[in-house]
Amino acid sequence: MIELRGISKVYRQGGREVSALQDVSLRVDPGEVFGVLGQSGAGKSTLIRCVNLLERPTQGRVRVNGKELLSLNPDELRLARQGIGMIFQHFNLFSSQTVAANVAYPLEVAGLPREQIRARVAELLSLVGLSDKADTYPSRLSGGQKQRVGIARALAPRPRILLSDEATSSLDPETTRSVLALLRDLNRQLGLTILLITHQMEVVKAICDSVAVLEQGRLVEQGKVVELLSRPGSHLHGLCYPPFTTGESAVLRGGQRVELSLSGEHSTRPILSTLARRFDVDAHLLEGSLERVGEARVGRLLFELTGAPDAVSQALAFLREQGLTSEEAAHAW
Amino acid sequence: MPGELTHSLWVATLETLYMTSVATVLVVLAGLPLGVLLVLTDRGGLWERPALHRVLGTLVNVGRSVPFIILMVAIVPLTRLLVGTTIGTTAAIVPLVVAAIPFMGRVVEQGLREVDSGLVEAAIAMGSTHRRVIFRVLIPEALPSLVRGTALVVISLLGYSAMAGAVGGGGLGDLAVKYGYMRFRTDVMLGCLAVLLALVQLVQWLGDGVASRFDHTSPHSGRAHD
Ligand SMILES: Nc1ncnc2c1ncn2[C@@H]1O[C@H](COP(=O)(O)OP(=O)(O)OP(=O)(O)O)[C@@H](O)[C@H]1O
Ligand SMILES: [Mg+2]
């Protein structure tokens, strides 16, 4: 659906060169929600703007909807852009036009007749739940409502791809959740392919199937979100799970400190009670989390095992055998 | 003021209105494309042409730096060519227009530059042609400031027209000089001033009113639609 090959982008600014992207390649499959995660200045906006050529890459190839965008002439490029919707952090709605006129804009660009535009605008506004705001100006809407208008506008010409440049970054958590839920629904109902960039891990966990991690203009990782999160040592795992804040000195019972990462089938098994029954040890929870990511559950736990020394080491061996803890973090003191 | 002079004041007012309104129409017609061109051709603009941009910018600056009195004299040949004479209200329109076009160009340029570049980007991302970006996004978004700027241009045209009148163009400036200054008729002078002041106020008030009607950038501005 979207394929970037060896994309580099160098900005020239008064003799100085800023290399915003270096040899970035990624592939977004049809129907997928693909996230690009990175810190401020990592090159995320530059990357997503290369997909519809708002920015022309210095090097590389951009293939979208089966078309090699860099080889299109201006008319063909405009046509191709009508098949790629885009939403923005600051919404970028036309302030001089009503909500309905904003949504109608891309349909006018596409040259639809007036009656069809009217019907399609009504349909879209009801899709995003803003039918009653058709004649309102954007300045009178809340941030979440503005982004819904942005989404309706982007989807008006029935694009198969939606690009999202930090679409929820200026919204509060509650509104962010509802906008993400809307995007998820659109992805499922319309089979819409979504490429979104964000600096928020929450967004990746909430709606992305796949993710790429961008650091200083380079992709350092790419894969399925659930797989990366269940693999301690992946960049995504490191970003999602910073070291436990419970320091080693906080373990006061003289027991064994154990870290577990939970995913897949492990996440649904009664591990702690199994340990207690089989080895006659006690598990004192220190810290941890377990959450839903897409269809799966992933998480990690930090606890302290106490009991007879033999029992504790047997329990540890069991955990290692089950592949629950590979780390030598489980050392005695 | 005797009836005859009141009549003169009325005629002078009409002459001033004639000069200013015709000049305004021509200035807007020429200044709008000039301002649009200044924005488009600039670095990072939709139609980058640095050389053309520099030429236009220089012309505008030259135009704006020449004092109106000097400009009026300097373009006498042009006026004669276009109107056939160099005195009278119609002849005065030529220097008025020439003087105000660069001003209007800058006003338009500045108004368009205030438009959030994100909106232009969104329009491009939706596959807009440049023409559509200009007429459906840039100009409508800048409309309130274009209207305020035009009011400013009209007000300075009123001032220029009084000056043009004073050297034989007719209008309120002419009347004020002929009677108020040369014949010591202070009442006529004050009458002319009062009418000019009223016109300036009117234009400012109209400009502000129309501009805020088009302005929907804050939740409490513009005409309520809901
Ligand atoms: N038009 C430009 N001219 C020069 N340098 C630019 C330009 N746009 C971006 N850059 C530089 O490229 C780098 C990447 O910028 P980019 O906007 O893509 O980052 P980002 O990941 O989107 O950051 P943020 O999260 O803050 O939006 C930065 O160092 C930035 O300064
Ligand atoms: Mg950015």
From TrEMBL, chain A:
<dbReference type="GO" id="GO:0006865">
    <property type="term" value="P:amino acid transport"/>
</dbReference>
<dbReference type="InterPro" id="IPR003593">
    <property type="entry name" value="AAA+_ATPase"/>
</dbReference>
<dbReference type="InterPro" id="IPR017871">
    <property type="entry name" value="ABC_transporter-like_CS"/>
</dbReference>
<dbReference type="InterPro" id="IPR027417">
    <property type="entry name" value="P-loop_NTPase"/>
</dbReference>
<dbReference type="GO" id="GO:0016887">
    <property type="term" value="F:ATP hydrolysis activity"/>
</dbReference>
<dbReference type="GO" id="GO:0005886">
    <property type="term" value="C:plasma membrane"/>
</dbReference>
<dbReference type="InterPro" id="IPR045865">
    <property type="entry name" value="ACT-like_dom_sf"/>
</dbReference>
<dbReference type="InterPro" id="IPR041701">
    <property type="entry name" value="MetN_ABC"/>
</dbReference>
<comment type="similarity">
    <text>Belongs to the ABC transporter superfamily.</text>
</comment>
<dbReference type="Pfam" id="PF09383">
    <property type="entry name" value="NIL"/>
</dbReference>
<dbReference type="InterPro" id="IPR050086">
    <property type="entry name" value="MetN_ABC_transporter-like"/>
</dbReference>
<keyword id="KW-0547">Nucleotide-binding</keyword>
<keyword id="KW-0813">Transport</keyword>
<protein>
    <recommendedName>
        <fullName>Cell division ATP-binding protein FtsE</fullName>
    </recommendedName>
</protein>
<keyword id="KW-1003">Cell membrane</keyword>
<dbReference type="InterPro" id="IPR018449">
    <property type="entry name" value="NIL_domain"/>
</dbReference>
<keyword id="KW-1278">Translocase</keyword>
<dbReference type="Pfam" id="PF00005">
    <property type="entry name" value="ABC_tran"/>
</dbReference>
<feature type="domain" description="ABC transporter">
    <location>
        <begin position="2"/>
        <end position="241"/>
    </location>
</feature>
<dbReference type="InterPro" id="IPR003439">
    <property type="entry name" value="ABC_transporter-like_ATP-bd"/>
</dbReference>
<keyword id="KW-0067">ATP-binding</keyword>
<dbReference type="GO" id="GO:0005524">
    <property type="term" value="F:ATP binding"/>
</dbReference>
TrEMBL record, chain B:
<dbReference type="GO" id="GO:0005886">
    <property type="term" value="C:plasma membrane"/>
</dbReference>
<dbReference type="GO" id="GO:0048473">
    <property type="term" value="P:D-methionine transmembrane transport"/>
</dbReference>
<keyword id="KW-0812">Transmembrane</keyword>
<protein>
    <submittedName>
        <fullName>ABC transporter permease</fullName>
    </submittedName>
</protein>
<keyword id="KW-1133">Transmembrane helix</keyword>
<dbReference type="InterPro" id="IPR035906">
    <property type="entry name" value="MetI-like_sf"/>
</dbReference>
<feature type="transmembrane region" description="Helical">
    <location>
        <begin position="17"/>
        <end position="40"/>
    </location>
</feature>
<feature type="transmembrane region" description="Helical">
    <location>
        <begin position="188"/>
        <end position="207"/>
    </location>
</feature>
<dbReference type="Pfam" id="PF00528">
    <property type="entry name" value="BPD_transp_1"/>
</dbReference>
<dbReference type="InterPro" id="IPR000515">
    <property type="entry name" value="MetI-like"/>
</dbReference>
<keyword id="KW-1003">Cell membrane</keyword>
<comment type="similarity">
    <text>Belongs to the binding-protein-dependent transport system permease family. CysTW subfamily.</text>
</comment>
<feature type="domain" description="ABC transmembrane type-1">
    <location>
        <begin position="13"/>
        <end position="207"/>
    </location>
</feature>
<keyword id="KW-0813">Transport</keyword>
<feature type="transmembrane region" description="Helical">
    <location>
        <begin position="146"/>
        <end position="168"/>
    </location>
</feature>
<dbReference type="InterPro" id="IPR051322">
    <property type="entry name" value="AA_ABC_Transporter_Permease"/>
</dbReference>
<keyword id="KW-0472">Membrane</keyword>
<feature type="transmembrane region" description="Helical">
    <location>
        <begin position="81"/>
        <end position="103"/>
    </location>
</feature>
<feature type="transmembrane region" description="Helical">
    <location>
        <begin position="52"/>
        <end position="75"/>
    </location>
</feature>
